[in-house]
C-alpha cells in the first residue's frame, strides 16, 4: 500500500464486527471488540448517528482529514451496498469477504490521493460556512418579520 498511514479499519453493528481490513499482524480484532463493548450507546461523538460504527486506526502524523474522508467513503459505500438489508442480520465477520476488499480500496484511495482529499475538505468547510451565514440571515429575517 506504499506509505502506511491507515493501519486498520472495521465496520460494526453494535458490538458485532461485520467486516475489517489490515495489512498488519496484531490483535486488532480483539482490541476493536473491547472498544466497542465500552462505547456508550448515546455517544455519537466519534461515530455516525446510525446503527453501524465505522472505525479507522491511523498514524498520528496523517492528521484528521484523510481518516475522516476514509470514514465518509466507507459509510457511503457500506450504506449503498447493504442499506438496512443484509447488515442488520449479518453474523460476525460475515461481510469480510465481500466488504473487506472495499475497505482496502478506500484505504488505498485515501492514502494515494491526499491532495484531492485536502481540496474536498476545504470545499466542504466553505460550504458549511456559507450554509451557516445563510441560516443566520434566514433567522434574522424571521426575527425582523415576527418582531418588527
From TrEMBL:
InterPro entries: Longin-like_dom_sf, Longin_dom, Synaptobrevin-like_transport. Residues 10-103 form the Longin domain. It is found in: Endomembrane system. Keywords: Membrane. Pfam families: Longin. CDD domains: Longin. It is a single-pass type IV membrane protein. It comes from the Eukaryota. One of its GO terms (cellular component) is endomembrane system. PROSITE patterns: LONGIN (PS50859). Gene3D superfamilies: Longin domain (3.30.450.50). PANTHER family: SNARE PROTEINS (PTHR21136), VESICLE-ASSOCIATED MEMBRANE PROTEIN 725-RELATED (PTHR21136:SF192). Belongs to the synaptobrevin family. This is Longin domain-containing protein. It comes from Eruca vesicaria subsp. sativa. The lineage of its organism: Eukaryota, Viridiplantae, Streptophyta, Embryophyta, Tracheophyta.
Amino acid at each position: 500500500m506504499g506509505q502506511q498511514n491507515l493501519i486498520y479499519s472495521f465496520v460494526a453493528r453494535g458490538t458485532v464486527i461485520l467486516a475489517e481490513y489490515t495489512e498488519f499482524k496484531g490483535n486488532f480484532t480483539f482490541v476493536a471488540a473491547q472498544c466497542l463493548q465500552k462505547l456508550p450507546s448515546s455517544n455519537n461523538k466519534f461515530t455516525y448517528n446510525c446503527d453501524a460504527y465505522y472505525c479507522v486506526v491511523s498514524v498520528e502524523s496523517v492528521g484528521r482529514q484523510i481518516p475522516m474522508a476514509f470514514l465518509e467513503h466507507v459509510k457511503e459505500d457500506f450504506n449503498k451496498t447493504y442499506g438496512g438489508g443484509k447488515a442488520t442480520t449479518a453474523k460476525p465477520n460475515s461481510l469480510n469477504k465481500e466488504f473487506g476488499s472495499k475497505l482496502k480500496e478506500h484505504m488505498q484511495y485515501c492514502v494515494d490521493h491526499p491532495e484531492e482529499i485536502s481540496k474536498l475538505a476545504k470545499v466542504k468547510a466553505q460550504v458549511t460556512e456559507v450554509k451557516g451565514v445563510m441560516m443566520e440571515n434566514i433567522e434574522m429575517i424571521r426575527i425582523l418579520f415576527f418582531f418588527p
